[in-house]
Amino acid sequence: MSEVPERPVILHFHFFKCAGTSIEHELEHHFGERLARFDRDVPFGKIFAEDLVDFVSANPAVAAITSHQMKMPLPELPGVRFVPVVFVRHPIDRILSVYRFDRRRGPVTPDATVASEHDLAGYVRVQLDRRKQVENFHVMHLTDAWDPATGRALPIGPSGHLERALAVLDQIPGVGVVERYDDSLDVLTAVLESDFEGLRFRRGERNVDPERESTLEGRLDALRSGLGDDLYEELLAANSQDFELYEAANRRLDLIRVAHEEGSRDA
Q1: Confidence class of residue 2 from pLDDT cuts 50, 70 and 90?
Q2: pLDDT at residue 266 greater than cutoff 80
Q3: What is the mean pLDDT of residues 40-62?
Q4: 3-state class of 190 per DSSP?
Q5: CA-CA distances (angstroms) from residue 164 to 69, 71, 111?
Q6: Are the CB atoms for 182 and 203 separated by under 8 Å?
Q7: Considering the entire predicted model, what is its pTM?
């Protein structure tokens, strides 16, 4: 008796200000109503594996889910194969984008309220003191060390969360890097096209910061200028683990790209 093929379901982890709107738009372009947006109505809500199992079981037509609030580890469900898609961004560049975005939209969330009430340096100072948004953001969104019962990260220490996040990263077939957006889309297409016929990620970002300088170097110079040298260096140090994860994501992207290019030549 032949085996029933597993149903693939994309899980797009929409990290704030990491090209998530662009990827979401592409998924909607391809899947239409088969793309589901799954977030709780409360800020800082969290969606864990058991929540995804219930959601996918109740929505058998869904082919892709995008969410700001999903947490690792990946769910397990008989007959379903979950395919995670994650984009990361230069940690410091992301912080400037978050600040500008939140300041434009006004005090609609606790973090946006901080941005509305402070200049860039004041915002970073407050958020560093609160350990919110500006300290190892990617590590804490990729770690799988969470307690679903309390909704809190497990107290395993920063190095423990980095180790867990790096292990998760190594298992993700669809890794993207915002600063290498077009290259990342090519890799995503290669990774996903065998499961989703006709899926093509079109180039060109959406929801781009209208104030954004054209180069990463220019944006980092703008951030240093707005913060001053001392606070800028403090911010770099506070994100040392995110930088390690960012470099690992770039290496992972290169490995996946080379593997698919070699596979195409051998085919």
Answers
A1: very low
A2: no
A3: 94
A4: helix
A5: 18, 13, 26
A6: yes
A7: 0.92
pLDDT reported for residue 238: 96
Helix (H), strand (E) at residue 82: strand 80-88
Kindly state the tokens that stand for 44: 């800082």
What's the angle, vertex CA 75, arms to CA 202 and CA 135, rounded to 5? 70
| Band (209; pLDDT cuts 50, 70, 90) | low
Whether cis (ω within 30° of 0) applies to the bond prior to 107 is no
pLDDT at 1 over 50: no
* CA-only gyration radius of the chain, Å: 19
Cβ atoms of 145 and 168 within 8 Å: the answer is no
Could you give the CA distance from residue 63 to residue 217 in angstroms, rounded to a whole number?
Answer: 38
Return the axis-axis angle of helices 229-238 and 120-130, rounded to nearest 10°.
40
CB 188 within 8 A of CB 176: yes
Number of other residues whose CB lies within 10 A of the CB of residue 255: 13
C-alpha to C-alpha distance for 209 and 106, rounded to whole angstroms: 15
Which of 40, 20, 74 lies closest to 208 in space, CA to CA? Answer: 20
Q: What is the pLDDT of residues 56-101, one digit of tens each?
A: 999 999 999 999 999 999 999 999 999 999 999 999 999 999 999 9
In degrees, rounded to 5, the angle at the alpha carbon of residue 197 between the alpha carbons of residues 196 and 200 is 85
Give burial (CB, 10 Å; 0-12/13-18/19+) of 41: exposed
Which of 185, 207, 189 minimizes the C-alpha distance to 198? 189
pLDDT, residue 206, reads 62
Residue 102 CB-density burial (10 A; 0-12 exposed, 13-18 middle, 19+ buried): buried
